Every structure is written in structure tokens, then in C-alpha cells.
Amino acid sequence: MDIRPELILSEGYQLLLVALLFIQSLDQRLQKPAVRCWLPTMAGLGVCLALYNLNASGVIFSGTYCVDKLSQFFKVLISMGFALAVLNASRQPTLDREKRADYFLLMGLSVLGLMILASAAEMITIYLALELSSYSLYALVALRGRECRAAEAAIKYIFFGAAATALALYGFSYILATQHTSYLADLALKPWTWSETPLAIVGMTLFMGGMFYKLALFPLHFWAPDVYQGASNETATFIATLPKLGALVVLMRLVAVVPGPQVTLVIAILAAVSMTYGNLSALVQTDVKRLLGYSAIAHAGYLMVGLVAGTNQGLDAAAFYILVYVLMNFACFWVICRVGADGRNLQLTDLGGLHHRSPALAFVLAVGAFSLVGLPPTAGFMGKFFLLTSAWDHGYNWLVVVAAVNMAISIYYYLNLVRHAYTHDEPERLGALQREPLFSNVWGLMLAGLVLLLGVLPGPVFDAAVAAGSNLIR
Amino acid sequence: MFETAHSVLTVLIFFPLAACLGLILLRHETAIRYYTLGALVLELALAMPLLGFDPAVGGFQFVQKVPWVESLELFYHVGLDGISLFMVALTVAIMPLCVLCSWRYISLRVKEFHFCLLFMTSACVGVFSALDFVLFYIFWEAMLVPMYLLIAVWGGPDRRYASIKFFLYTLAGSTLLLVALIAFRYVGGTFSIPDLMTGDYAFGFQCWTFLAMALAFAIKVPMFPFHTWLPAAHVQAPTAGSVILAAILLKMGTYGFLRFTLPLTPDASHFFAPLMIAFSIASIIYGGAVALSQTDIKKIIAYSSVGHMGFVTLGIFLFNLRGLEGALFQMLNHGITTGALFMMVGAVYERSHSREVTDNMGMGKYLPAFMGFWGLFAFSSFGFPGTNSFVGELLVMLGAFEVKTWIGLATVPGALLAAAYMLRLTQKMAWGAPANAGTWKDLNKREWLYLLPLAFFVLYIGLAPTPLFKVMDPSLKTVTARLQTETTAVASHSVPQSNAASAKRKILLTDAKPHNPAQE
What we know:
A: two-stranded antiparallel sheet; 2 strands; globular; B: mainly alpha; two-stranded antiparallel ribbon
């Protein structure tokens, strides 16, 4: 067994953070220094480490663990997302003081699982990493003080999660039975056709189901609105962003194994249904987080557009889009967490007059929402444009049209967010003018700035995504 | 390959954006107004090098092409020809006047308002000068957000409904435009508009891309069945919003037809021309008829816009030089005249706080200067000889009679209707009783300042249009050249009946390759 520690710096560092958090969670006397003081900085260092290791490559642990451009690109995204999530959750109002270390411990563990997921090149490893990241999340959802809906959401999440995992394992048994290997590199060399290995294709589709669950792709989407609504604002932020990274990277590897139309047709149909269903359901929502939950279902559909193309360009576009997706979701949730400072669930009407109360946050929300629609000059447009361009002319033109029409449907509810923030001036709210702390404005504007910057000059980052996605399909 | 010599367009696009940054530092409202006015006047001054446009050269000028996203072959590619030059000129000329006409009207959130105006300027100049399909689309969509905010934040009582309708309509129309441009990338191999213009595309492909593009452009124009957002948006928008909407935004639709639909899908344009002509005539007559029955001044002018833009689309789909010249003239004229009329409605609203005709009667005696200007613009609106619109409407009618007598005849009621509703409105405003204008003040200096230049252009274009012809003709001829070869090739039947016919035509086309539309 070969171990090269220099390849797994990010994972090691994350493990160190988890260990520190574990020690702090053991005893109340170890509360100082407070987690929220040291963890964001340390997580920020993790991003630097991941960037430093961006070009590492090699296969370790007897071929089960593949460090390549793709995994390193995603590890940068995951560690960046972790840093943002920690920063966002640092002043969580619905979390008891003594549970803080445990909360971040679970979050850190989940992130560790995602990092392993990014590199896993063998199906059992994938499964284990997936479980590692999921189980901590299940507990995280329930950690919302004074709220019984959180418990309900956690139960829904774990039941659906268990069912999806069972589905994935069942599919894995088919693959193993027909192809006699669980290594992705070997699987790529096996025949994948309906005539020769029908069971393997069924199995692969089921195995992907486990990832669809994480992405909230139809028909494994049921948990998303409930969990988004039931979990605390900060936990919902985490669930809305990071697990999608892990799910997408595995799907990219799996699609690269079976790029043919046998599996992608199913994905294309699910994608079309998912985006239409998500967008139509979101139209009538009034709870902001629930609305974003349905928007997540729709976006899972958009992401799949890149995968069905069955080309490296499509995978590049999906890798770029998930980055954009994480950023714009962070921007929206950042505003939600700040506006709902007392930890309550925001209704659309709560956003009324935000423009007066906090111009900076209103701007961040507008940028995030317009980016989710896909309006230029935001990164959301560039991401969607790359996705649609890559999928055209590969047999799925109808999916591109469906995606474009869905953009038109989705504008209504995203615009609703902006409309409430900018045009609903309720006098009784104006009285309660509160000055936003500098911290929230600066980080919010930074996120909005990133979304705009990636919309205007996507070149360098897109090239990194291209490097990540290329050479997957040979 | 990379021509960076001419950066005048880049300056025009990005200068207002840079000016936005300066706006953040200002606090005092008057300072903000003067600052924005100064920035937009400077923008106008920066546009002066465009006067060096050489009509004799043909093709695109002031071209700048810089790689943007290399892995997808996206370019920052801008340039002007004889069509877009006028539109850019119109944009940079109208925008400072928009600041002037909202000097009093806008008293809330002044900084954000002027921020929107500056952003709008950038996006509009960008739309008209982009030569890369994706760049065009980005500017085209980017302009939605400030326009939405202009209506939704500073609009009238029904502003939320109107602004959402505007946004949904225009965005829904343009998503399919995105699909079409992606398809052109694969079939034509490039996003570059000048390169795409020379390609030959299969008839079936042309048909669906024509429909996708035409939907986006027809909603923006707006043509008859897609026009319902326009009156709502116009009536609710603040004065500056209405002016921008009428003078610049609507032109983007017709500009799209001229720049994309005709050159990229010539066969499909021929195929669908009867439909488009029918829609245009319906717009002319419907817009006029509905305008006749309105009691709100702004609504009358909004519906008159539908009619005027009908003339423009009619001119475009006649496929002859007269028609295209007329269409381009009408685009320019409508921008000047209707822009001016909306400004005057804003001015009268500041006095009466009502847009109802009955609340604004009998001004002839008390506000002679105001009514003088109003008379001039109203006469221009229905194409009185000597004013600018006369030139445009006459050209479109000439073109129509050239094609088919009945098309020409069908436009006549439209012109009559325009005279009817404008004269009725003007008569009531000037001499209607009871007069309630007794205490109102006549035009102040600021109002003189923004009406005079418009009045000058109304008469100048009306009396001496020759220089404009010289600039626009070479560019329009390249458009007609691409279309005419199609018609000569199918001399007998002007509308292809089937795919087989078009395939036959393709062969004819490749035999007699048309004179290449000029490249830069």
C-alpha cells in the first residue's frame, strides 16, 4: 500500500481541525479560545493549503484514492465553502453555547467526508466517504434550538438518506456482480451496453441515485424543501452548498465511466423533470428558505445538462457551474442569515424594505438572485451559458430548450426576492433601522463582487475548471 | 486579427460604468444631478470621434477585437456600421436629456436613480456596438435590471405590476434567443456576427432560429400581439424611464431584426415576411385605433409608439432599400419625437399632477412656449411634411407601394389615425375648456434646454436628410444585397413553398454567389 502524505495535505489538515474541535467539545473548560474566533481563520488557511496543492497528482491507497486535477479543484471549492460556512455560522443564534464545538465538529467531519469523496476512485470508498459526510449532516440538521420542525426535518433527511443509500448499495451489488470490479479505472474498460450488461447499467443508474439524493434531483428531491425550511438558517446554508460539490464530483467520475447514451438519457429526462418541477413549485412559496429549496431542485437539473453531453466540455461546464452555484447560494443565504438575525425563518414579506434598512445586503441579495436566474453580467449567466453551449449538438438539444424555458419560468420567484427587498416599503419596518455590522456588509459584498467578477471575466477560473474536467472521458 | 486601434467604443461603454463609482462618494442630491449630467455630457463629447465615420469605406468601423474567454472563443468585439452608428448617437444624445427631465420629478433615492441611468447608458451603447453574439446578449439582458428598477422603484401607483410584466415578457422572449445563438455557434462555427453574416444555413435551421430571434425582437419592438407590456410599462414608468424605453429600448428590437434576422436568416425572412408584414400593419392600425380612445396622455403616446414601430418593422420586411431607409429613419425619428413627447408629458405632470387629458386642457393661452413645442412634436409624430417623421413614413410607404400596392394602401389608414389622435389631443390641450392652466408657469430654462435640441433635430432631419442617407445607404445596401439575390434567384415565386424549393434555391445561390457583405 502506497501512502504519499504530500498528496493529502488538505484532508490531513481537515482531520487536524476535526481533532482540535473534538478536544474542545470534550469539556466546557476548554471553551477558550471560542471556536468562532479561531476556526474561520484556520479554515481560511485550509483554502490556501488546497490552492497550494492544486496541481498535485497521483494514485494512492492501492488505486482507491485518486489525486488529480479534478479532485484538487473540488478540494479548493470544498475548503473555500467550509471557510465561508464557518464564517457564516460563527454567530448562530439558535445554537446553545455549549454545543458550538460539537456543531463545528460535525460540520468539519462532513467536510472531511466530502474531500475524500472528491478523490475516491473506487466504489466502496465512494460509499464510505458519502456516509461519513452524510451522517454528520443528519445530526447537524437537528441542532436547532427551540424548534421542533428541525427534529422533523432531521428525521425526514435521515430516512430519505437511508433509503437513497440503500438504493445505491443495491445498484452497487449489480455492478459488482456483472463487472467483477469496483475500481472506476477498471470499470471504464468494461463493456457498458444494454445488450451485454443490462444489469450493470441498471446498477449504475441506481448507484447514481445516491448522488441524486445529495443533489436533490427529481425523484430523490423530497427532502430538500422540508430540510431547508426546518434546519437553522446557517445549517441550511451548509446543506445548500457543500454536499452538492461532493455529489457532483462523484457523478462526474461516474459519467466519465459510462459516457454513452444508456445512462445519460435517464439523467437527461430526470434533469428536465427536476428543473421544471423545482421551478414551478418555487413559484408559490412564501418561506424564503423553502423557496431556495425548490430552486435547488431546479438547479440540480441544470447541473445535469453538463453531464448528459457526455463530453469533457460538458464536465468542464458543470465544474464551473457548481462553483458559481456555491457562490451565489452563499450570497443569498448570507443575506438570509443576516436579516433573520434572531434565527427565525424568513418570509418573503420580511425582506420588505431591506433596501432602506441595509442597502448593501439588498444589493447582495439582488446579485445572488439575478445570478440564480442566469442574468448577465453575473456569473450565473456565464455558468448557464457554458452549460447550454456544451450540451448543444450532442443529441440533447431538447434539454437545452427546456433549460432555457425554465430560466424564463424561474425569473418570477427570484425577482420576487428582489422585488420585496427593493419595492416594498413598509413604514412600520422602517422605524427599526439597525446598522449592519461591518463584518456582514464586507463579506456579503465580497461574495457579490465575486459573482459579478466571474460573470465579467470568467476566463482564468473557467480555465481551471477546464483543466479539472478534461481528460476524464477518454 | 486583433485591431485595437479604435478604442472609442470601449470608452463609450465603460466610461459611464466608471462614472458610477464616483457617484458612490457623493451625498448631496444636487451634486449627484450635476455630476451625472456632467458625466453624460462628457460621454456625448467622447462620442465625437464617431463623426469621423467614413460612409465610403463600408462595413464595420471603429472595430476593436480582444480575446475574452479563449477556451470558448468568446471575443470582446465591438464596431459600428451605418445602422448602429445612428443608434449609438441617439443613445448618447438622449441620456443627458433624461437627467434634465427628471431633475424635479425624482426626489427619492436620487443616487440610485442616476446609478441606473449610467448603467443603462453603458448597456445600451453595448447592445448597439457589440459584434459578438454573446457580448450582444449580455448587454441585451444587462439592460433589463436597471430598466426594471426604474419602473419598479420610481414608477406610478401600479408600478409593481407593470415592472414585473415588463421583466417577464422581455426575459421570456430572449431565453430562446440564447438557444438560437448557441445553435449558430455550432452551425456557423463562430460567435462573430460579421462572420456569421456570410454563412449559408439550411432552410429548416433558418426557420426555427428566425422564430426564436423574431420572438425576442418582436416582444421588444413591440409588435402587435406581443405589445401588451408596453402601455403598462410606459404609463407607470417615471419620465426618464418612458423616454429611455421609447427612444432606445424599443429600437433594440428593430435593430435586432436589421442586424440579425435579415442577414443571418435571409431565406426564412423571405418565408415569414408576409406574416411579419401582416403583424406590422396590424400594429399600425391597432396602435392608432387604440390611441384614439385613450384618455390618459401617456397612454395615447404609448399606443402611438406601437403604431410607429409598426411602420419600422413594415419597412424592414419590405426588403427594398426605400423600406429599410424608411425604417432606420423612423427608428431615429421615433426616438427623437416620442422621447420629446414623453418629456413634455412629464413636464405637464409636474404642473397638474395628472396625466388625464381633461386635467390638462386650455394651455394654449397660458403656456404658449410649451404648446408651441408640443405642437411641433405632435405634428412630427404624425408625419407632417417638413418634420422628421415625414421623411421616414414617406420612405416606408414608397417602399410598400414598390412591393405591392395593397400593402401601401394598408398603411394609409394608419397615417390618418395618427393625425386624428394627435390633433385631437393637441386641440384639447391647447384650447380645451375648462382651462385649468391659469396658474401654471410656462417652460423654465431647464425645460427649454432639453426641448430645444430635440426640436432642432426634428426640423433638421425633416428639411435636410441627405447627409443621413449618405451614411446609412452603404450599410443598408449590404443588407438588401444579401436579400435581393434571394429574390432574383426565385424570381417567379417570392415565397418558398417547400424545403425542396429552398434546396433548389441554395444551388442557385452557390452558382451566383452574392456580393459579400462587407467585412472590416
